[in-house]
Amino acid sequence: MENYIIEMNNIRKEFPGVVANDDVTLKLKKGEIHALLGENGAGKSTLMSILFGLYIPDKGEIRKNGEVVNIKNPNDANDLGIGMVHQHFKLVEVFTVLENIILGAEPTNLGFLTTKETRQKVIELSEKFNLKVDIDAKIEDISVGMQQRVEILKMLYRENEILIFDEPTAVLTPQEIDELMKIMRVLIKEGKSILFISHKLNEIMAVSDTVTVLRKGKGIGTVNVKNTNVNQLSEMMVGRKIKGVEKGKSKVSDEIILEVKNLVIPSKLHKNNAVNNVSFDVKAGEILCIAGIEGNGQSELVYGLTGLEKITSGQVNLLGNDITHKSIRERNLTGMSHIPEDRHKFGLVLDFKLKYNLTLKKYFQEGFQNHGFINEEMIKNHANRLIKTYDIRSGRGANTIARSMSGGNQQKAIIAREIDCDSMLLVAVQPTRGLDVGAIENIHKTLVEERNKNKAVLLISLELEEVLDISDRILVMYNGRIVAELDPDKTTYQEIGLYMVGAKIQDKYKVVEAENNV
To answer: Which residues, 6 or more positions from 333, have their beta carbon under 8 angstroms from its beta carbon?
Structure first.
């Protein structure tokens, strides 16, 4: 008889208008890494949320070590040794890293909070698993990648034996992903058991023992990683063969869509500038990618370009217009669309209906409103068109509350809205974050189509495979500066990696750096 530490038998969970889990069975052996694979909205996160006590199943049972358990809330899950790293972080932004890690498990003495020993324990955990983060920094002041580390440390701090990782690598750099894989293997050696949700098939093949595939809420099958391959898994997941994107040759024109001159943007975390004297341009008919390890100024650069952050000095020109100090709406109307890296913070109004989120950039235009009154019929029709075109899956269609949608479908909604603006410049930051292989294929096709319409795409990506697959030109950022310009057809992962960590810098950028230091 198999030694299962967790059994989820015949689980069903229904929400208004959608069956998220339909008679799903999942069994986790002690000491294994069991991957959960499926399209966006297939029911993976819902299933794991049931195991963690965030949802109660309508039908089915959960067993731990063969005994039926009743998990009504996350406290019950923690008592059973079940921990979860969430795809959308459950962090209090105004609290420090340390305060978030101990929240709900605060050490006290006679009713007073005592953090000295706890502080040391967290530091030791961060060093042991190479999850270094400033434990005194506030969550609102650290990058998305650093917030991911805090979520992992929260789980390790509680010494859970069953660890759920929901899309843990979605915001990590290739180097950080490699480290996380090592961490997961170490955790298994220490007697932990891991459930691992991921869209990244190569990661699943590299680290998992077993894979269970879901499609549209149903269990498609469970296979041993040794007996399958990436192509078979992708076909199980989406029900068709994935062809990938034919980028083709770009027809870059001489027309400069975006021109950035000597841009300087301050850092919120330290005294140095996050962006230091950066200059580049993006021409019509090209996809320019800015690559780099997270925290090297890419986020602040985008904030400055899109109006989310004030610029200290320098100039930004869009279609020949100086937009350096223009409002966000003025930039949008001039010809800029923006797919943000943090879809919850900058991309959506989570408690608005999907139809309103899809018209955030158009509601004030003629037709969508008349003398200040919203035209509900126009908004509904507009939303339904985008929902159909971009395959945005939601329980109640245009009336679905954005917060209730899966992360991947939230991302699809943002991409649909931004592409539909028909802007000459699309700033796309981690556009495929949290998307499955089928959705990634469609997004890449969409970006290439935008380029082929003689538009400009500025892509900021941490995914080196994505960088090399669809870019026409690559700039590498390190420590707030551009350190290299590369041709994706003539470079390698290894070469990009050397520039990303600051081990190399091209001669023409050495001159710029020398001038800055004079």
So the answer is: none
| Residues 115 and 164 placed together within one structural domain of the fold | no
Answering whether pTM is above 0.85, one says no
What phi-psi label fits residue 161: left (phi over 0), alpha (psi between -120 and 50 degrees) or beta?
alpha
What gap in Å lies between CA 244 and CA 464, rounded to an integer? Answer: 15
What lies within 8 Å, CB to CB, of 156 at 6+ separation is 125, 129
Is 13 inside any structural domain? yes
- 103 and 76 in a single domain? The answer is no
Q: Are 497 and 178 in contact (CB under 8 A)?
A: no
Write the CATH number for 346: 3.40.50.300
Q: pLDDT (tens digit, 0 to 9) for every residue of the chain, 518 residues total?
A: 568 999 999 999 998 878 899 999 999 999 999 999 987 778 898 999 999 999 999 999 999 999 999 999 999 999 999 999 887 788 998 999 999 988 877 777 766 667 778 888 889 888 887 778 898 999 988 877 788 888 888 888 888 899 999 888 766 666 677 878 888 888 888 888 999 998 778 889 999 999 999 988 899 999 999 999 888 888 888 777 766 667 777 788 889 999 999 999 998 776 788 999 999 999 999 999 999 887 789 999 999 999 998 999 999 999 999 999 999 999 999 999 999 988 888 999 999 999 999 999 999 988 898 888 999 999 999 999 999 998 898 888 999 999 988 877 899 999 999 999 999 999 999 898 767 777 788 889 899 999 999 999 999 998 888 889 899 999 999 999 999 999 999 998 888 888 987 888 999 888 655 555 54
Mention every residue, 6+ apart, whose C-beta is less than 8 A from residue 112: none
Do 331 and 448 share a domain, yes or no? yes
Rounded to 5 degrees, φ, ψ at 273 are: -75, 135
Report yes or no: 402 and 41 within 8 Å, Cβ to Cβ.
no
Task: Look up the domain containing 43 and give its range.
Answer: 1-81+160-242
d(CA 384, CA 13): 26
Q: How many domains does the chain have?
A: 3
Say whether 249 sits in a helix, a strand or coil: coil
Domain boundary among 114, 144, 159: 159
The answer on 272 and 343 residing in a single domain is yes
470 in the same domain as 349: yes
